[in-house]
Protein 1
Amino acid sequence: MSDVRNREAQEAAERAATYEWGFTSDIEQEFAPKGLSEDTVRFISAKKNEPEWMLEWRLKAYAKWLEMRAPDWAKLNVPPIDYQDAYYYAAPKKKPELKSLDELDPEIRRTYEKLGIPIEEQKVLAGVEGARKVAVDAVFDSVSVATTFREELKKAGVIFLSISEAIREYPELVKKWLGRVVPIHDNYFATLNSAVFSDGTFVYIPEGVRCPMELSTYFRINAANTGQFERTLIVADKGSYVSYLEGCTAPMRDENQLHAAVVELVALDDAEIKYSTVQNWYPGDAEGKGGIYNFVTKRALCQGRNSKVSWTQVETGSAITWKYPSCVLAGENSVGEFYSVALTNNRQQADTGTKMIHLGRNSRSTIVSKGISAGRSDNTYRGLVRVGPTAENVRNFTQCDSLLLGDQCGAHTVPYIEVRNPSAQIEHEATTSKISEDQLFYAMSRGLSQEDAVALIVNGFAREVLQQLPMEFAVEAQKLLGISLEGSVG
Amino acid sequence: MTLLALPSNREESWRWSDLSALPEIAARQPQGGVPERLPWLDCATGGPRLLFVDGRLVAAESNPGIVGIGAVDIAPSDHALARLVGHEGWTLRLASGHAPLGLVQVIHASTGAADHLPARIELDVDAQASVVETFLGHGWTNRLSEITLYKGARLMLARRILSEAGYVSLADRVTIGEGASFTLTTLAAGGADTRLDGEVRLAGDAAYAEAGGALLARGRQRHDANLVVRHEQPHGVSRQVWRSVADDQATCSVAARVEVARGAQKTDGEQSLKGLLLSRTGTINSKPELEIFADDVKCAHGATVGELNRDALFYFASRGVPAEEAKALLTGAFVADALERIGEEAAREAFLQDAGAWLAGKQADTE
C-alpha cells in the first residue's frame, strides 16, 4: 500500500517539476550590448526614436539609480543581482510595418497560440449579447508587435498604444502624466525602470467614455537574460471607465530573470479603473533553481472626486515577488480596492500587499488578501493603511487570511496602520489556518482525489478575490491555482 | 556621556520613535531628593519594597527582603537603549517551594537626569511572584529586565508609568518554561514619552504569555511599544491586548508580533490592538504582525482605530448623561479592557484609578 502511495507521490512531484508552459522560441534578436551604463540608456532611447526630453528623463533616473540601494526590508531572500550581467534591450528585428496579423513572424504567432492568447477576434463569449471584446496589446519580449482593435478604440476616442508609440504620437499627454504617480526617484526598482524601460502600454480614456472593451496585455519573457522593464500608464479622464487585464506566462529558464515593471494609473473625477492581473511566470523548479524575480511598482492616483481604482491580482508565479499595488486616495469620496490571491509553492517567496493612502474626505478602501503557502515557500502580506489629518470620515476594512499547506512553509502578515484623523474607522482582521481534516475527508468521501479536494478547498478560500476578476480571467485563475498546487499534498 | 548612538527612523523597529530628547536629558545633572509622595500600594501582605531614586536604592525607604541589590547576572543587550544599563541593579530569585512572598513593589523615581538599571527575575519550578513597578519623575529612566520562568512558575508583572515628564524606556527579555505563565501589563498614564520593548519566548511546552497594556497620551507625548512573542514549542498560548488613547498632538504606536517557529504546533496566539483618537491632531500607529512557520496553529489578530462609538454616545445623551461624562465613561471602559487583566486586585484597582485620574485630567482641560 505504501509503495503505491510513494509511487504516486513521486509521479505527482515529477509532474509538478515540469512547468507546463516552459518552452522557448527562436527569433532573431537585436540586443543592446550586455550591461548597464549611460550608453545603454542612450542606446535604448535612440533605438526607440525618442525625443530629447525623454532621453533626459531617463538619464536623470539612471543617475539617481546609481546613488540608490536595493531595498532590504521585505521578508525575502534575494540573491545578489548582477545588473551588468543582463541585456536591457531585446527587440524582434524590425520588419516592415505590419498590415495584419498574418504578416507577423509565424514563430511569434505559434508562441502566442501555445500560450493560448486569444489574439483573434474569436474572443467573444458565447451567449453574451453584444459580445464583449478584448483588445490585446501583446508585448513580445520588450516591444509591442501588434495591436488589434485599435480602430474601434480610436472611434471611441480611446488611445491604446505601446508607450513608445505614445511618446512619439502624444508627447504632451505622456509628458504630463509619466512619473506623476511613481516619480523617477520613487524606489530602487522603479528608478531602474525609469532609466531603461523598453516598452509597455499607454491608455487614455477621454472624458465620459466607457471603454467599449476590456483591454489586455500579455507579457512574455522570452530571450535568455533579458530583463523586462515594462512601463504602463493609464489615464482615465473625467467620468470614464476602463477595465484592464494583465496576464503573463514565461518560458522555462535556468538563469534568474529580472522583471521590474512600473504601472501608473490616474483616475480623474468620477472615473473608474479596474486593473486585473494573473501572474504565472516561471517560479523556478522544485529546488528553487531559476525563476523570475518580479519587482514591480504599481500605484494608482485617485485624483478626482468619486474616482475609483480596483486592483485584483492572482499571483502564482515568479521565484520572488515584491509587489504592492497601491492607491493614493486624494479625491473626495474616492475608493480604493485591493483583492489579492498569492500562492507560493516549492521554494517561492512572495512579499506582496498594498498601500492605501487616504488624503481625501470620505475616501474608502477595502483590502482582501488571501495568502496560500505550500512546499517550502514563504508568503508575506505587507500592507499600509494611512489616514492623513485632513481626511475626514475615512473608512477602511482589511482582511488578510493565510492558509498553510504542510509544515515546512511560512505565512506572515505585516500590516501597518497609521491614523491621524479621529473620524476614521479602520478595521483589520487576520487569520491563519490550515485545511481542516474534516473538509478534506468530506471532499474525498465524495470521490475527489486528494489533490482535487485540496484545489477545491483552496479555490473556495480564494473565492472572494476570484469573484472580482473579469470572466475571461476567473476561469484561467482557478485552473492556475490547481496547477500551481500540484505535488504539494500527499 | 559619549554613549548615545541612537537609531534613526529609517530602522524598521524605530520608525515611529522620536529619541531626539535623550541626548539633552543624558547631559543633565540629577537634582536629587526623595519624592514627597510615594504611591506604595496598600496591601495586606507586606512584601518587599524598593525605592530607587536616580537608579540608586534609598535604603531608608526600602525593605528589600529577599530581593538582592548589587551586581545583576544579566547578559549584555544589543538593544540601542537597553545596552546602556550597567551591572548594579536588583535581583529577585525564588526557589521552588518558597513561602508566598506578597506583592513585590519597586518605585523608580528620576530627578531629571538619566539612569540605567538592570533587573533579573528568576522563578524556579512552580514558584510564584507578583511584582508592581511604578515610575515617577522627569528624567530618563532606562531599564533592562531579564526574566526566566522555569517549569510551572508564574509571574504577574504590572508596570505603571506616572512620570510627569522626560523619557521612560523599558526593555524585557523573557523566557517562559514548560507550563509556566507570564503576564505583563503596562499602563502609561503620565507625561513622559515612553519606549517599551519586549521579547517574550515561550520556550517550553504549553507555556502561557500575556503582554499588553494601555497607553494614554496627550500634548506632544509619544508612546511607542514594540513587542515580540515567540512560540518555540507546541501548545503555547499568548494574548496581546493593547489599548491606545491619543489626545492633542500625541502619538501612540504599537508594533506587536507573534512568531510561531517551525514545529510549534497547536499554538494559539491572539492580538487585539485598538486605538482611540480624542482629537483631530492625534496619531495612532499599529502594526499587528504575524510570522508563522507551523501549519496547525490558531493565530488571529484584530486592530481598529477610530473615535468613540457614536451610537453609544447617542444612547448616553438620550439618557441625559452630559457629553463629557459620557465620553469619559466610554474612554474609561475602553482602557479598562487592557487593565482588567491584572490578576492582583490591589494593583488592578490602583491602575484603574491612575487611568481614571488621567482621564479626569482630560476633563479638567476641557472645562
Protein 2
Amino acid sequence: MRKTIALCGILSALAGSAWSVDSEMDTDFMQSVDDTNKSLASTIADKDVKASLAALKELEAMFDRVEVFYKHKGDAEDAVELSKKSKELSIEIEKLVQAKDFDSANAMATDLSRTCKSCHNFYKKS
Amino acid sequence: MDANNTSRRDFLVNTGAGLSAAALAGFVPGLTSSSAEAATFVDPLAPKPPQFPAKAKAVIWLHMNGAPSTLDLYDYKPDLIKLAGQEVPASFLKGIKTSTQGGVGKIKATNRTWKQYGQSGAWFSDWLPNLAKRADDIAFIKSSVTVGATHNISILKLNTGDVVPGRPALGAWVTYALGSNNADLPAYVVLSSGGRGLEGGSVNYGSGFLPAVYQGTPFRLGDSPILNLDRPELTTAAQQRDNLDLLKKLNEHHATRYPDDTELQARIRSYELAYRMETTAPEAVDLSKESDATKELYGIGEKETNDYGTNLLRARRLIERGVRFVHVVSGEANGVRDWDAHNDIEKNHSAQAKAVDKPIAALLADLKAHGLLESTLVVWTSEFGRTSYGQSGTGRDHNPWGYTQWFAGGGSAAGTTYGATDAIGLQIADKNQAVDTYDVHATLLQLLGLDHLKTIFINKGRSERPTVVFGKVIKELIA
C-alpha cells in the first residue's frame, strides 16, 4: 500500500512538472523575458557590470526553460535550436561584459534580440 | 508669501524664480540625459553635433500610406507572371502565417510592363515612368520585413519602433539628438495629403517619453499651414506681443509648481515658436516665388499630382531652411484614399502611383539641382508590402514577409540594391538579409552621424534608444 502511494506521488509529481513546463510558457513568462532583455540593453548602455550580469543569468535560466518546453512539446526543432543559440549568445555577452567591452556586448545583445524575434515569427500565438 | 496679497514686485520676483525653475524643468540636451539632471537651463532645441561625421543633415521620410504593392512597382518577377492563376506552391508559404480574409488566393500578376533603367539597370514598372529616370539615385532595400497585423500597428512600428503607443517617433529622436537648425521653424514637420491619413494619429509623430518639445508639428495643405497661426485681424502686433509676454510669465510661474512637466515647457516654447512662425512658416511654404518650371516639375496645377507635389516642394523648402526631419504622408488620389488595395489594385495603384511618381522624381531632381541631395536623405517607405497571391480576385493582401523600400541621397549607396525576395516576391530570399524597420532606423541614424546604440534617453531609470533592443546598420546601404 505504501509503495502504491509513493508511486502515485511520483507520477503526480511528474505530471505536475510536465504541467508546470506548459504553464510556465505563458504570456507572463514571455513578458518577463522581454522585460529582462530590455533591462539588459539598458544596463549595458549604462556600463553597469553587476546589473548586466544579473540580467544575463536570469535570461540564461529563462532560455533553459524555453528549450525544455519546446523539447517537451515536440515538432519544434527550430525553437529548440533558437533557445540554445539564445543561451549561447547570453554566455558570450557575459564574457564581453566581464571584459568591460560594452560596445561589443551592446552589438551582440541586438543579435540576441533578433534571435528571440525570429523564434516569435514562427511560434508566437497571434 | 500670501497668495491673496501678492504685490507686483512679488509677482516679478516669483516670475524670475519661475525662469530659474524652468532651468530645472527637464530640457536636457546631449545624448544621455534624463529630465531630472538639468542644473542650468539649456535650449533643448539648440543644435548639437553628431557623434561622428555625418553624411546627411536632414531627412525626408516619404510614407506611402496604406502599403503599396512594391511587387508591381520595383520587384520584377517573371515567375509571378508565369504562375499567375495557379495555387501558391506550398514551398513559398513555408514559415509564414497567412490570415487573408477569404483565404489565400491564386497567384496574381497585374497588367504591368517592365523595363530596366539607368546604369544600375534597376527594374521599374510602367506605374513609375518618372521615378524610373532617377534609378541611379536610389539604393533599394528589396528584403524589407516587419510585423503585418494591421495598418495601425505596422505604421506605429514604422514610425516609432514599437507596436504599442508610447515610444518617440524617429523624427523626435533625431530632433532630440541633433536639435534644430532654424529657431523660427519646427525641427520636425509632418505634411499630409489628406485621404485616410494616419489612423493612429499623433502617436506616429509624437515625442513619447522624450520631452514634448521634440514632437512633430503637422502642417496643413493650403496657404495657412498651421491652424490659427495668423494674428486675429483686430489685434495689433504690439498687443499680441504684450499678450504673449504676459502669458509666458504666467506659464513660467505655473511651471515652478510642476518642474517635471515637459508638456508645459513645450507649450511655453510653442507660443513663442508660433509667434515667430507667423512670418517664417507662411514664407517657408509659400510657393509663389518658385518658378513655373519648378511647379510644373512637381506636377503642381495638375489634378492628380497637385497636393502631393505641393507637399514635396514644401518639403524641399523646409529642408532648405534648416528643418531637420520632414515626414510626408501620402494621401487621397483620384478618389482613392490610400494604397490599401484589397480590391481592384489596377484602379487603386494607377491612381496612387500617378499621384506620387512625378512629384517624387521631381523632388530628387530638385534636391540635386539645389545641391541638397548629398546632405538630405530621402526614404521611400511603407508599413508593409502586398502579397503575390490575390485577394477577392482583384486585389492583394498585406505582406510583411518581403517588400521593397529605398533610400536616396544623404550618403546612401546610389544605384545599388540590397537583398531580394523569392521567385514570386512573397518572402525574402535570404533571412540573413532581412531589413526590419529597426534596421532602417539604425541605418538612417548612422547616416546622420548617430550610433543608434548610443543615442540614449533615460526614462524611468531605464536607458532607452530609438531601436528598442534591435537595430542593425546595413552597411551596404551606405556609400
